[in-house]
Predict the structure.
Amino acid sequence: MRYADCAEEAWRNGAGRTRTLWSGEGARISVAALERDAPFSAYAGYDRSFCVLGPGAVTLLVDGDERRLSLGEWTAFAGEAQVSAQLDQGPLRAVNVMTLRGVARHRVWLAHGPADAAMLVALAGGNVGTERFDAGDLLLPEFPATLGGAFLAVQIAEADQSARVSAS
């Protein structure tokens, strides 16, 4: 899915814009455009991961805990956390991965070179084999894939039975 082909939509709280790259039962991968300092929308019951696409850096305040992130750096937090973004060097874009507890779970990591993940999001442009991808593009490659550039690898799976029971 090419970032440029995805429709832009407003955040729940109206403080920003996002483009959904992929969604499934209880899960979503999107790219947010942060134009100014702003609070994040609350997503109670979700687990979230946030990774900077750039340019620049951002400081997230997560329940009062300061987390400074630049290109390719990511953090995880609960969807019900009080989160706000303070842009350090002007507007930027970031990948958001969200999964509904008890329904789905996710894992993210940075991938360079050979990769084996369900989905990849290009961080600063790159290629898989001979195909070129721009920052924010999501791909579902055949694995193992040889990467040229940095990608955020994402695995989303059904929540295990014990998590499902404890969430009800």
Summary: The first strand starts at residue 8 and ends at 10.
